[in-house]
Amino acid sequence: LSIGPLRAFEAVARRLSFRAAAEELFLTQSAVSRQIQSLEEELGAPLFNRGTRHVALTADGAALLAAVAPSLERLDGTVRQLRSAR
Question: Measuring CA to CA, which residue among 67, 5, 64 is closest to residue 34?
Fold first, then answer.
């Protein structure tokens, strides 16, 4: 899996908003939506229930978030350490 769609997924899942995730990631809302769609296609499962004005995680989305969030935190921490050592 590519890290870009995983970061987009984590941001949407944490904020429960495609718009807020797009602002956080400095992307357009449609770019975030396309990344989530490609991730869902790759996994073969919907990750969000989308309503008119709300987004909620599916059971598969919640399971993926439980795995992705700590992994991204560890990755970001390691990158920060490497950068600060230089």
Answer: 5
Length of the chain: 86
Predicted TM-score (pTM) of this structure = 0.90
Cα 68–chain centre separation: 8
Query: Are the C-beta atoms of 40 and 46 separated by less than 8 Å?
Result: yes
Average pLDDT over residues 31-36: 98
On whether the CB atoms of residues 47 and 64 are closer than 8 A, the answer is yes
d(CA 68, CA 61): 10
What distance in Å separates the CA atoms of residue 82 and residue 52, rounded to the nearest whole number?
43
| Cα 86 to the center of its chain, rounded Å | 29
